[in-house]
Amino acid sequence: MMAQTKVSIDRISGFLQEEELQEDATIVLPRGMSKVAIEIKDGEFCWDPSSSRPTLSGIQMKVENGMRVAVCGTVGSGKSSFLSCILGEIPKISGEVRVCGTAAYVSQSAWIQSGNIEENVLFGSPMDKAKYKSVINACTLKKDFELFSHGDQTIIGDRGINLSGGQKQRVQLARALYQNADIYLLDDPFSAVDAHTSSELFKEYIMTALASKTVVFVTHQVEFLPTADLILVLKEGRIIQAGKYDELLQAGTDFETLVSAHHEAIESMDIPTHSSEDSDENLQLDGKKILKKKSDLAGNSIDNLAKEVQDGASASDTKAIREKKKAKRRKNQLVQEEERVKGRVSMKVYLSYMAAAYKGLLVPLIVLAQTLFQFLQIASNWWMAWANPQTDGDQAKVTPMVLLVVYMALAFGSSWFIFMRAVLVATFGLAAAQKLFINMLRSVFRAPMSFFDSTPAGRILNRVSIDQSVVDLDIPFRLGGFASTTIQLVGIVGVMTKVTWQVLLFVIPMAVACLWMQKYYMASSRELVRIVSIQKSPVINLFGESIAGAATIRGFGQEKRFMKRNLYLLDCFSRPFFCSLAAIEWLCLRMELLSTFVFAFCMILLVSFPQGSIDPSMAGLAVTYGLNLNARLSRWILSFCKLENKIISIERIYQYSQIPSEASSVIENSRPPSLWPEHGTIELHDLKVRYAENLPVVLYGVTCAFPGGKKIGIVGRTGSGKSTLIQALFRLIEPAGGKIIIDNIDISTIGLHDLRSRLGIIPQDPTLFEGTIRDNLDPLEEHSDHEIWEALDKSQLGDIVREKDQKLDAPVLENGDNWSVGQRQLVSLGRALLKQARILVLDEATASVDTATDNLIQKIIRTEFMNCTVCTIAHRIPTVIDSDFVLVLSDGRVAEFDTPAHLLEDKSSMFLKLVTEYSSRSSGIPDF
After folding, report:
1. Strands 103-106 and 92-100: what pairing?
2. Chain segment 401-430, per-residue pLDDT in tens
3. Strand order across the beta sheet in which 27-29 lies
4. How many whole angstroms from its chain centre is CA 459?
5. Between the N and C ends of the chain, which has fewer C-beta atoms within 10 Å?
6. Which family does it belong to (predicted)?
């Protein structure tokens, strides 16, 4: 206990001594005090103050009230860090930062709280329905709310798991807009949405809703730059160019390179711009001409979201379908209240725990050791009472030496058995705790994605940390203590029955009264302990969310509200915890009073016996054991109560050990060939998918075939089923009907490891693990340093890693926080290049990189994966239009599937309208 206390104090002390944010990093002036909204003088900033190379240096900037400032640059140039220096999040080495007025911040990686959408938008502000409605319209969220079964009351899962990337970003934007701040700092908010939505969002949000506000926005989308009053071009942490759009174009250099990459792609496609009044005849495009003149350069964001309402569908039919869907889902929210067992703890829980260690073989040994200890304890006391003379005149029954030797032998024997019991209990507890933890861990790791979608991280952490700690340190000794007390109680009752059986006339009624009080107490205490366990989860969850969203919380000035919320949740936890402690004191008081009264009556009974009717030594033994009987009976009841309260932790762990798991990792009698998939052919046959049995189908009979070695572009509006299709391909979601066949093998017939290990993916939200660059690129150590460097060079990260002191062993913090989002995506590309899977999925893999870098990456993908099947979900239209086939999804159905040439020749094609809309928006300066 002392060692644990010392370790805990040291950890807390270390945390409290960590360097805090500089209070003078940003000087905040009251609203209206200055005409200058943001001013930075000679700013130099660095995330790691000990580093010799600052993150940002030589920053000089002045932004007046009402200006729109665009920030652009290549991957890792310091754009996000630039916004952080305005917020005061990055340590300041030198210089001065002044901000006049309140600020609102929208991060590049969307931060969404658990709760419903409305709570995320309001973010602690009071509801103003008119204002709320205008904010929702400005953020183009109205249509999304109509698709949700509970509208804006839909519960968002952990980290916004049940929202698409674009929806999460728009909820963030709505949160910022509702605060009515003076300054808006937006970190690449349009990369997660399609071209149509981003264009509408830019017009309604930045150009209209924020027309009178000061806006600083980071973007890779060149078409929005002409509207900015000031454009800042960053490179290697410095502002290398600053000015208006036309001025920077004339100056050339880096800015011209960024813009040229965009315009070359648009011009090379030779797609004319059409007004909304154009007829179908005016929308004709020469598809072959487009493909022929398509350059290898990637353009700007593509609209990978097709229009929601299909031509010819009546409004009434659409509404009827939507209402029918709502009716089915109205009672189903993704995140439910944490389950809580009620009533007595099942005997199955006790038996399962005892069987967890060595199949229960240690339990009888523990009982035997405790029984022998108790027997020898009683024997030693009985020996002393029997062997000692009753009076001074009586002759001793044995010699003093025999008396001492026998007593010492009995004492040594009892000591040995109690030592063995302690060793056995510790061994049992360790083995059982390990078995329970491994089973729970295996169950959680094997759980389907739907479990993580509906279960906040705080609940999982609560069980694997706090409940597991109880199992590790508390339950074995409480169980051993209960067994010890039980055997002692049986031994004491045996002695009392032999010496003065009359005492049982008082003890039996006392035992009945104690059992009644125990039953009365446990009915409340058991539920209180369960409530306490559940109330810990929100505290842990809020703590995790607050850490993840610290920059946003501080940016909005919401620290006090979150502190108040944290204290409220602590109160919610403390109330039942205090009641639980009070309840056990209630039981202790009554049992101690009852024990005292019973012991007093027993003593009166012994004194009332006629002289000579009882051996004095045996009377003394009876008094000793009578006193022990009262104490042991009370302790036995308390021990059982505390054990049952603690055993609830095992009950909760067993719940997470019985989570329905995914399919088997390996099916021995159904393993694919070692070279599978050899061709990469993917066939979808009447594929139907739903996220849970009680939820509606989201993919309706998708049927198509992707030829092996071809490039497939997948487009469609939000909610059309693109990501669901990819999840079904990896069997993250099991089909409700139909099947997926890869190279003549039904993927449902093989193990998940055999399937997933043969596929590759570059996700939109890349994941980096704490460790090094080498660990993240080659976790299984299958590749040489030369191969890793080659992959880094191809993914445009080689030079960046070479600049690090440790090269391939450069550290990666948790979640890759010391690398930009764009760099994390490039690391994911490096993984894919090393793996060289026959089938590769790109899920908006370059959404967070600049156009020039994307151009190079697309070239590399087309070269390195020339003979692979590549399925691409992308916002960049040159990538999709260059595909061999394009799949257009709409409302979970296949709207179109053909070559780009054929789709572009079809006047009624949704893909044609998609391309035309993109070209119209991206050509020239947008008319806002």
Report:
1. unpaired
2. 888 888 888 888 888 988 998 899 889 989
3. 27-29, 92-100, 36-45, 56-64
4. 10
5. N
6. Belongs to the ABC transporter superfamily. ABCC family. Conjugate transporter (TC 3.A.1.208) subfamily.
Residue 212 has pLDDT above 80, yes or no: yes
Is 760 or 282 the better-scoring residue by pLDDT? 760
Question: Is the pLDDT at 311 greater than 50, yes or no?
Answer: no
Examine residue 54 and say whether the peptide bond preceding it is cis (omega within 30 degrees of 0).
no
pLDDT digits (tens, 9 = 90+) for 79-88: 888 998 898 8
d(CA 582, CA 726): 54
Helices (H), ranges, 56-116: 79-87
Q: CA 482, CA 554: separation in Å to the nearest integer?
A: 51
What confidence tens digit (pLDDT) does each residue in 112-163 have? Answer: 888 888 888 998 889 998 999 999 988 888 887 877 777 888 777 666 666 7
Residues 445-463: what's their mean pLDDT?
Answer: 82
Q: Report the DSSP pairing between strands 839-843 and 759-762.
A: parallel
CB within 8 Å of 922: residues ≥ 6 apart: 195, 223, 262, 266, 299, 300
Q: Which of 198, 196, 178 is nearest to 188 (CA)?
A: 198
Give exposure, 109-129, as e/b (b: 16+ Cβ within 10 Å): bbbbbbebbbbbbbbebeeee
- Name every residue whose Cβ is closer than 8 Å to that of residue 202 and which is 6 or more positions away in sequence: 190, 224, 227, 926, 928
| Structure confidence by residue, pLDDT tens digits, 509-528 | 877 888 888 888 888 888 88
Cα within 13 Å of Cα(8), Cβ side:
5
Q: Which residues contact 30 (CB under 8 A, 6 or more apart)?
A: 100, 101
What amino acid occupies position 374? Q
What whole-number distance in Å separates Cα of residue 25 and Cα of residue 134? 35
Is the dihedral angle over the CA atoms 737, 740, 741, 747 positive or is it negative?
A: negative
List the single range of 65-74, 85-94, 148-157, 276-285 with lowest mean pLDDT.
276-285
Higher pLDDT, 369 or 618: 369
Token pair for residue 26?
């940003």
- Per-residue pLDDT tens over the stretch 585-608: 888 888 888 877 777 777 777 677
Average pLDDT for 232-249: 85
Nearest-angstrom CA–CA distance, 594 and 241: 86
846, 850, 851, 853 alpha-carbon torsion, rounded to 10°: -80
CA 809 to chain centre: 27
Q: Count Cα neighbours of 762 within 13 Å in the Cβ-side half-sphere.
A: 33
Give the distance from CA 596 to its chain's centroid.
54
The pairing of strands 711-716 and 697-706 is unpaired
pLDDT reading at 272 higher than 50? no
Cα(24)–Cα(3) distance, rounded to whole angstroms?
A: 40
> Which residue bears the tokens 């980071």?
218
Instruction: Say how far apart CA 788 and CA 890 lie, in whole Å.
Output: 40
- Edge-first strand order for the sheet with 839-843 is 759-762, 839-843, 869-873, 711-716, 885-890, 893-898
Q: What is the DSSP string of 333-362?
A: -SS-PPP---SSPPHHHHHHHHHHTGGGTH
DSSP-derived pairing of the beta strands 230-235 and 68-73: parallel
Task: Give the closest residue to 838 by CA, choosing from 873, 874, 866, 879.
Answer: 866
User: Nearest CA to 726 among 887, 899, 912, 862?
Assistant: 887
Calpha distance 150→117 (Å, rounded): 10
Domains by residue range for the chain, with CATH:
19-102+184-192+220-264 (3.40.50.300), 357-657 (1.20.1560.10)
Q: How far is it, in rounded angstroms, from Cα 733 to Cα 706? A: 20
Q: Lowest-pLDDT range, 288-297, 443-452, 627-636, 861-870?
A: 288-297
Q: Quick one: 727 exposed, middle or buried, by C-beta within 10 A (0-12, 13-18, 19+)?
A: middle
DSSP state of 896: E
